[in-house]
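From: lab user (bench 3)
To: helpdesk
Subject: output format question, protein + adenosine-5'-triphosphate

Hello, I'm new to running complex predictions and I'm not sure whether the block I got back is the full result or only part of it. Here's what I submitted:
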Amino acid sequence: MRLALSILTDAVAYGMVLFIISIGLSIMMGLMRVVNLAHGAFAMIGGYLASYAIRDLHVHYSVAILLAVVGTILVSIPFELLLYRRIYRKSDPLIQVLMTIGITFLIIGVVNFIFGPSLKTIPLPPLLSGPLDIGFRSVPTHRLFVIACGLVTALSLWWLIEKTEFGIKLRASVDHSGMADALGIRTEIIYAATFALAIGLGAFGGVVGAEILPIEPFYALRYMVTFLVVVSVGGAGSIMGALSASMLLGLADTTGKYLAPEFGEFFFYLAVICIVFLFPHGLFGRSHA
Amino acid sequence: MTGIATNDVPARRRLPLLQEAGSALAIAVIGAIGYYLFPDDLAFLTRLIGISFLVLSLDLVTGYCGIATLGHAAQFGVAAYAAGIACVRGVTDPLALLAIGIFAGTLMGLISGALIARFRGLPQLVLSIAVGQLVAALANKLQWLTGGSDGLSGITPGKVFGIYNFDMYSRTAYLFSLAILIIVFVALTRFVRSPFGLMCRAIKDDDLRAKMIGVAVYPRLVLMYGVSGAVAGVGGALTAMSTGVVGLDGVAFERSAEVLVMLVLGGAGHLWGALAGTIIFMIFEHIVAAANPFHWMTLVGLLLILIVVFAPKGLIEPALSLARRLTKGRAS
Amino acid sequence: MTALLEARNISRSFGGLRVTDDVSFTLGAGDRVALIGPNGAGKTTLVNLITGDIAPSAGQFLISGEEINGLSIPERVQRGLVRTFQTTRLFQNLTVADNVALAIMQRRRISKRFFSVSTERPDVRAEWSEILANLGLDRLAYRKVVELAYGQQRLIELAIGLALRPKVLLLDEPAAGVPHDEAPKILDAINQLPADIAVLMIEHDMDLVFKFATRVLVLAAGRLIFEGSPKDVTADHEVRRAYLGSYADARRVP
Ligand SMILES: Nc1ncnc2c1ncn2[C@@H]1O[C@H](COP(=O)(O)OP(=O)(O)OP(=O)(O)O)[C@@H](O)[C@H]1O
Ligand SMILES: [Mg+2]
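Helpdesk reply: Thanks, we reran it on our side. This is the complete output you should expect:
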């Protein structure tokens, strides 16, 4: 029982981190059809910025999150203008893969040159550190914070996409990009805004999830595959898909680590192969044939 | 009614045998230059040749079939482990080890192909990664067999043809690898122009059209993956023999990404592109990465971006068209 | 005698739109049939259904009496069912000769060889050079398809179709985009085909239809509304209504 609860909190918290980071990638892949392997690199920039802001500028955790998100988006703008624009909705995944791997390498190299190649901690404020008593036992407060962040992210995204003007235009562009252009929707602007949103979410997830996915020099490479797998299993562009895939993979991975640490990764990737082979467009995805 | 059509088909232009002989000669010359100019770096050059098999193998599926894969190191790694394990357990004849590597690589290629060639786009990419990672996880965990994260060491192959010993200056290993590279390269030159190879290029261009002339596309691609696995297997076995160890880096994701970069740098869809990319990349890596791995990453990142933006067909295409223009200029 | 190709009550919808609506017809040996109909009538969709590119929601196809619904695209091709595409689909980065040679080698089941030379095999070369010469493409044999004009690419579509030696040949607007002085070559090439195969041609140019067809099928909004001789089609009331006069214009195209 104790063990089950620990596994569950860890799994859900881990899943939520995966969700917050991957949902940005998922939206981007759903709308712009770009396989952005550099998504984790932007999350990493967020983590490095937050760590720097707290440890060297001594700002509060919440301010650091804000700085990290805004800072990462600013950094990403030239990438969007100069590089990503060329590969939106290109059918050849190879070109996308190569360019975004290139961007990942570049970011890893430059970021570690500037901030130094070492593990970056992001100290938690007193409010979030330590355990929280939830009646029959205590759980780490930070885990609950992450779970809350995930839920808030999911709800706000749902609201943004289903209930706002921007969301309507976004959905129109996903389904019929040519038609959207004809209707006077400037897809270019929609793309740019979505890109910023995706990168911002990535940075946000990178910072709040740093306790679970530690910010280290090869972060962008280490989790590159994980984020892509979440999107692929969930189905590109689907909030429900990303959420359930994150939970599923979080659970599989955490349970595997607790119960069979020897073969954790093995079962993780075996599960991925089975799911993707059976549902090539993801559990909740649609085909874009 | 039309009468007999007058046939204006231009005479056939290529002399295949000549081209193949030219390739063999060119590789031999480059190899000899390496041998005489850098006698102290033969171990590195042998490793380079080993990797070039992997890049050639990747070229077969990516360059000739259009399959985007980030898990290609699996074929290489499995073959390296197979040869290594066999050697540690008593099979020491280099040619036998080579055969074991080829067999293991082919098998792995067929399995990978069956999983990866089924789809296109994102599912294909993710499956390729997952297959690669699965193999890496297995290699890590089956410690009793593979040595796990310590690597498999103590691989001491016997004499080549029972005559030449693997010496510590890597002379034998280098010349042995070079000879096999020449054989494999010539065979591949022929293979990619065979009906089978041509059909793969056709599938890459338009798979629906290929189906509409009666081609069962999926089995073809799986078969091509098998051939590709065999080529990777040669490299894996040679590397295991020449370095004496097999480590997890041989199956790692980074290796898969790296060889993709080499291929695209040189030019996918050309055998010479694959070779050129490997040589350029590995020599640069040898020099720069030793100094500072992060500078190396920055450089590779920039290079990749520049290639994709300015020379998406790799360096070989501009080089070839330049050569063509030069020869034409001389002719006229 | 059983028909070479038979369609029985074929239907297919996209979303709410019934693009093919209970279509039945047969093609027998020696048939030269034109399939006409206004834009968007569902002609290309019908060809896609026959070849197995998309699956019908109801109905059956039979080749020589054998049901083929469960067969894949290549399996249907192996039974002699061959098509050309309305918008060309060629191997753009290969030469013209390679495009045709691949079809020949596939037909002769020598396309799986690993080590023989391909396009230049003497017997293969003889075959593709004859096909290309008949279509006036012989000079272009070693050019990459991507470098050619669209009209020339259209002829390569036909060349591939011929190279497969079909029993049933489905041509989707083979003359569209071909320069006018080259169009007769298409008819010549079709006339040289063995008499006992069936050819179905989608075509808007009525002059060509009259020269080619012994029978005409008219498709409108997914339904077959007319089947008969070319002579009768112009007189048919339904057909006139379907075309709303635009059909009369089509005839006047020089
Ligand atoms: N894959 C598809 N999904 C949705 N609708 C489709 C699809 N393919 C065709 N349609 C629709 O089916 C209808 C018939 O199209 P089709 O291409 O078969 O017409 P056609 O008779 O060949 O016209 P044309 O003379 O212009 O070639 C059109 O309204 C088209 O928009
Ligand atoms: Mg049509």
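A quick orientation on your result: The radius of gyration of chain C is 18 Å. Let us know if anything else is unclear.
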